[in-house]
Amino acid sequence: EEDANHDSNDAAGEEGNVETAATDNAKKEEQEKGNDDEKEEDSPPDAEDANATSGNEGQDEDAIDAEEKEEEDGNEGEEEWELKKILSVGEISAKNLMCSAPSCPNVACSVYQSTHDTNCTNAYFSCLDCQQSDYGGWPEDKSEIPMAFMTKQHRETIRQHCTRNPANAIFPDLPTSLNGEEEEKSDDEDAGEGEEKWDLIEVIAVKDLKKKKPKKCQEEGCTSAACSVWASNLAPDDEWYGCIDCMEK
Q1: Strand runs labelled E in the chain
Q2: Measured between alpha carbons, how far is 191 from 177 in angstroms, rounded to an integer?
Q3: Contact predicate 243/219, CB 8 Å
């Protein structure tokens, strides 16, 4: 009987040990499963996913670069030449600025600037003939002509020095006086006599006004810098330089 009880107790102990081991194994499996789930969440993406992401980023950068290049090319645009200045009577008469066209003997009357040359480092000087052949003549839009009017003296100076075909010289569609009215020449003026009139032939450029020694006003006793140039109908070659105050007077 004692041996039977002993065997029974041993069997119960073994059964309890088996249940405990099974419980421990179940807990261990659950813990390992939890660790595996955490590893999956923390693990980096597959190489294929990483390559795909990198490839997309590279494509985006290439697309941005292409767009920027297209924008730059669009801003640069096709080169155009714009009329920036019409030389004054004095500048033309001095014969110092000749036409830039090869072998052209004419004095220049116009200055053109490329839209790609914003600093005007390579200005092109053109006579009346080359302006007609190279640029199609004077701009049709008056807003593109850097002058509000062109006096008869100015036109005659251009006709005399800036073309080889003076009889067919073409001039811009501008009035001949500041107020927009055509000048009427009297018989006395044809004879070189009559009432004297002064025409504004040039407004001095900003860069010339900023020089260390700008041209001074010619009014007696005035020390201001001149801002405009005038010419008399009785003495077209004698130019008068005036400041803003003396010009008003």
Answers
A1: 81-86, 110-114, 124-126, 198-203, 228-232, 239-242
A2: 21
A3: yes
By the 8 A CB rule, do 225 and 214 touch?
yes
In this structure, the number of other CB atoms found within 10 A of the CB of residue 212 comes to 4
Which residues are CB-neighbours of 230 under 8 A, at least 6 positions away?
Answer: 198, 199, 200, 201, 239, 240, 241, 242, 247
Between CA 177 and CA 23 the distance in angstroms is 113
Question: What 3-state DSSP class applies to 78?
Answer: coil
Cα(39)–Cα(133) distance, integer angstroms? 80
The model's pTM is: 0.45
The pLDDT tens digits of the residues spanning 128-181 come to 999 999 999 999 888 899 888 999 999 999 999 999 999 999 999 899 887 655
Look at the chain and count its residues. 249
Q: What does the block give as tokens for 206?
A: 């900003």
DSSP letter string over the chain?
-HHHHHHHHHHHHHHHHHHHHHHHHHHHHHHHHHHHHHHHHHSPPPHHHHHHHHHHHHHHHHHHHHHHHHHHHHHH-S--EEEEEE--HHHHHHT-SB--STT--SBP-EEEEETT-TT-SS-EEE-HHHHHHHH-SS-SSGGGSS-S---HHHHHHHHHHS-S-GGG----S--SSTTSPPP---HHHHTT-S---EEEEEE--HHHHTSSSPPBP-STT--SBP-EEEEESS-TT-EEEE-HHHHH-
pLDDT tens-digit map of 3-56: 544 455 555 555 555 455 556 666 666 666 665 555 555 555 555 555 555 555
